[in-house]
Amino acid sequence: MSLQAIPMILADKNATFWFPPKASTFAEETDAFFMYIFWISVVFFVLIVAAMCWFCIQYRRRPGYKGDSRALHNNALEITWTVIPTLIVIWIFARGVYGYMDMMTPPPDTIDINVTARKWDWTFQYPNGAIHPELHIPVDRAIRLRMRSEDVLHAFYVPAFRAKSDVVPGRVTVMWFQPILEGSYDLFCAEYCGDQHSEMIKRQGVVVHDQAGYEAWLAEAAKPPTHPVAHGYWLYGRLGCKSCHSVEVDKKIVGPSFAKTYGESFKNTKGETLQFDEEYVRRSVLYPQEQMREGYQNASQMPSFQGKLKENEIIALTAFLQAMKDDAFLEAVQDGDLSQDEAQALGYADEEEAAEEDASEEGTGDTTAGDATTGDEAAADTSGDAGDNN
Amino acid sequence: MSATATSANYSQPDSDNFLINSKGFLSWALTLDHKRIGLMYLIGVMSAFFVAGILALVIRAELMTPGKMFLTNQQYNQVFTLHGAIMVFLFIIPSVPAALGNFLVPIMLGAKDVAFPRLNLGSFYLWVTGAIFFLSAMLWTGLDTGWTFYTPYSTTTSGPVVAATMGVFILGFSSIFTGLNFIVTINTMRPPGMSWFKMPLFLWATYATSIIQVLATPVLGITVLLLAAERVLKIGIFDPQFNGDPVTYQHFFWFYSHPAVYIMILPGMGIISELMSVHSHKSIFGYRFIAYSSIAIALFGFLVWGHHMFTSGMANVTTIIFSALTFTVSIPSAIKVFNWLATMYKGTVQLNTPMCYSLSFIFLFTIGGLTGLWLGALSTDRPLHDTYFVVAHFHYVMVGGTLVGFLGGVFHWWPKMTGKMFSEFWGKISCLLIFIGFNATFLPQFVLGSRGMPRRYARYVEEFQELHQWSTYGAFLLGFGLFVALGVVIHSLMRGRKAPPNPWGGATLEWQCTSPPPYYNFLNPPAVNDPYDYLPLEYRDEERGWEYVRPEAPSVPTSEPEPAKS
User: Fold this and answer.
1) DSSP state of A74
2) How confident is the model at residue A130 (pLDDT cuts 50, 70, 90)?
3) Are B380 and A30 in contact (CB under 8 A)?
4) Separation between Cα atoms, residue B75 and residue B143, nearest integer Å
5) CB atoms within 10 A of CB A105
6) Which of B200, B215, B177, B396 lies closest to B298, judged by CA?
7) What is the pLDDT of residues A8-40, one digit of tens each?
8) Which of B150, B244, B281 sits opposite A153 (nearest CB)?
9) What's the whole-model pTM score?
10) Which DSSP string do the residues of B150-213 spell out, in sequence order?
11) C-alpha–C-alpha distance, residues B213 and A104, integer Å
């Protein structure tokens, strides 16, 4: 996406030798403090190494030189080099606490977003109920994340925000930050979580919009397509299925690939032959441990979606799996995206939906054109973006 | 003016040399001689280091490119787990205390052996058993939990967690018994005249280390037993699926593993205290401050484990208290560095190979210590936690500190242990290569960390590639330097010139017996003097090394007493 590239260039321009872009309110204080400690350390380090080198040269063993072995202790000196470092570390400690308390104390007016971490993907649930695999937030607003893990320890880490917190299973961890720079940033999982730990990243997956862009994106993100195949694919991208099940033939990430599997028969772990049909899809989603395919014994990590999926959503997923038999559809989603055109060509697009989207795009353009100060381009782009994701 | 007093201890027959006084496999396998046990440990820990070092190079090679080089994600995870676990449990923890400590503690005390020689041999075999158990468990199916065994990953992964933790359990006992042995030895076997404050500082460091080993290691045992119970019996303390809490596991684990960091570094500091003094030919500066700071580090070290968990969701007050306690540990470490520097002041510094390693230690350890300031401060730790900044920080302490100190110690006591000198020139070259290679490996990682590169990543985003490549080139240079060091000691064994009893001019007791010592260490109990008094030592030549030159005792008063005034 060409318009996605603009924030990336911005991000590069704002990065320095030591730091990624200063994209949140924490960055100013943390970076300044980092550099203060750096210079304190440099002073001490240079003094120590200079003394070391000087003594090596000045007091080297050589003919005609005799060392003076009487300099054995000096209490004044000992006290000096105990007290001065002590005072310095007290200052460092205090300033660290000051910055930390800011990071721990969210302001009263925040946008609350629920985060679910699982092996090896993130899902974000927005205040209007929209669920999306990327984090989209408005600039200059305090964001509060309520984070849960479905399996093991993960950590939410956005370097550009200088924000990090572990996501502990069995607890709800809360963190907050306030973005100050529009653009898109990387999200990393920073706590080791198994095989695909290093794939649990969202490249440019934290997108900071202006307020209007955020609202437009949010409205769009909440609307699922109505055609069952497109809806199923939409769910596949949002519920974390895609972190374990590929859409390429025979490509095993953790679980079996979804490509060309519907209608096939296969052996389960007990050696019985089963049919991959409507009933099997439904049972696998609700009771994943019941029937496991041979060769996928350690795919026991699959969580149950009982209570998380409605019947019509299971129907949509089934339709999507069925469509995966079709080469044209496989090719369309190979790039990780089902664009409007592709959906239309395959007959999976919903006519009214597409029409409505065109209208809303125009509508957004109109309102922002009226408001001269907000970037209408960003708004139009993001709504187009969300459309693409459908 | 003076008469040469060659110590009576130099006059025993060469056949009493502990290396050859008895022969055959069993004379080594069942030996109770602390020196032979020390050497066997040395070979054991060096083998472990070799294996884990090769794994480190595999990791660095894989990280040359952001994508896949030759390891799958799963293999990468297994390799870094093996690297960390072998380095920590099989190399760093036993390196100085078990290998050098076993050899040196009794000789420095002028004693024949440790207090419990059979227990000592038992510790060695526990170590071997634990090592075999641990390695076979990890290699069998591939352990992928990281050396930290964090729950609930470790309770749900398919790897051989129970077997590996049992290996750790056995290794823990080896560590406890060694610590116990040293505590009793140092308490009860000091020779007459050697008060606590007349002990060589290496013994102070060993004593402080032993206290930690005895007090903290049982907690590791408890932790791994609970972990195994959680995995097998689902008792429900660490796994949220059974109402447990993963953060509880982290408290348990770091309650041992942070003090263990001081098990790793304190003996290294002890070595440096000896080396700085001997090779500067000057008594150690601020003896009491160095001795007390060892004990202070050992005690404070027990109170700071929470700094491994600053982002794990502890209460704010707890986090702030742990931050404050963490800074208290930095002060005794700083005191040591300043005192080592002051030891060189007005000394007679000779840049022998061990001294080069020692100066390298001060340089690298200072960086390791100072970078701890960023991680102890709560706000800067936030972005840096679990990134390459942390990786670089602890490698500066563990490798730049402990490993370099250990190598310095090996070179320093090599003539004593084997009776052979090594090539000074190539020894210094190895030190230089290791120094440059090490910095090239780990300096870029600080920048990687501050730019946001998380640790334990098999793949990474492209903009980190350049720094990763620097780091990889450095790692291969470091590996090459270590091979040169290995070549130096092997060459010394084959071709080395015979070592004098005291090649460096040390004043501690181990330099008063021959190189290598006889199996009984000392023919006569050595005279205890100030361990850092170099005045009566004088350099003869390459063959005789340094010898004691004692001024003749004046037989009559040199001056007439003043007549009483009337």
Assistant:
1) -
2) confident
3) yes
4) 10
5) 9
6) B215
7) 444 466 788 899 999 999 999 999 999 999 999
8) B150
9) 0.85
10) -TTHHHHSSS-HHHHHHHHHHHHHHHHHHHHHHHHHHHH-PPTT--GGGS-HHHHHHHHHHHHH
11) 36
For B259-290, the pLDDT digits (tens) are: 999 999 999 999 999 999 999 999 999 999 99
CA distance B31 to B118: 9
- Calpha distance B320→A368 (Å, rounded): 47
**Shortest CA gap A282–chain B (Å):** 24
What is the per-residue pLDDT for A365? Answer: 40
Closest CA to A151 of B113, B84, B155, B430: B155
Q: Which two tokens stand for residue B544?
A: 């005789």
Q: How far apart are CA A82 and CA A87, in angstroms?
A: 9
- How many CB contacts within 8 angstroms connect chain A with chain B? 265
Cβ-contact B118, B204 below 8 angstroms:
no
B240 touching A (Cβ < 8 Å): yes
Please name the residue that has the structure tokens 């402990």.
B402
- CATH number for the segment(s) B30-551: 1.20.210.10
Task: Decide if A85 and B311 are in contact by the 8 Å CB cutoff.
Answer: no
For strand A163-167 and strand A202-209, is the pairing parallel, antiparallel, or unpaired? unpaired
When scoring A174, A195, A196, A201 by the number of chain B Cβ atoms within 10 A, the one with the most, hence best to mutate, is: A195
Neighbouring-strand partners of residue A267 = A273
Q: Delineate the domains of chain A, giving CATH numbers in brackets.
A: 1-62+106-209 (2.60.40.420), 228-349 (1.10.760.10)
Cβ contacts (< 8 Å) between A188 and chain B: which residues?
452, 454
Burial B394-410 (b: 16+ CB within 10 A, else e): bbbbbbbbbbbbbbbbb
Taking alpha carbons only, the member of B186, B197, B260, B159 closest to residue B530 is B197
> Model ipTM?
0.89
Cα dist from B527 to A89, B45, B123, B531, whole Å: 45, 34, 31, 11
